[in-house]
Write a structure and sequence with these properties.
By secondary structure, this protein is mostly beta strands. The chain is 0% helix and 50% strand. It contains no helices and eleven strands. The strands form two sheets. Strands 2, 4, 5, 6, 9, 10 and 11 form a seven-stranded mixed β-sheet that branches. Strand 5 (44-50) and strand 6 (57-59) form a beta hairpin.
């Protein structure tokens, strides 16, 4: 099983980034997927979840209205479009597969730094 996150980087406040997470080794389309993040010196924080058929999405209050989660089941990939980024969004972002009972599975993380 692999969850390969990419798309992180350094961006100025107010800017945008799009994260991707490519999955392999399990039946991607059968499971909800999420993004989590961990800011420096803090615990893991849930960011967003999308159902297996994209019929429903949910967001933490801290990112609602600024971030959009989506998925492409044909490409075994989920995305996180992040707009109006703030310094408080600086964190390592992880994708997560709710692949129970064999999983769940975590990706390796991608660093997002919001700074001027």
């Amino acid at each position: 099983v692999q969850l390969q996150a990419s798309g992180g980087g350094l961006v100025q406040p107010g800017g945008s980034l799009r994260l991707s997470c490519a999955a392999s080794g399990f039946t991607f389309s059968s499971y909800p997927m999420s993004w989590f993040r961990q800011a420096p010196g803090k615990g893991i924080e849930w960011v967003s979840t999308i159902t297996r058929g994209s019929s429903s999405t949910s967001y933490s209050d801290s990112v609602k209205g600024r971030f959009t989660i989506s998925r492409g089941n044909a490409k075994n990939t989920i995305y996180l479009q992040m707009n109006v980024l703030e310094p408080e969004d600086t964190a390592v972002y992880y994708c997560y597969a709710w692949a129970l009972p064999r999983g769940p599975y975590w990706g390796q993380g991608t660093q997002v730094t919001v700074s001027s």
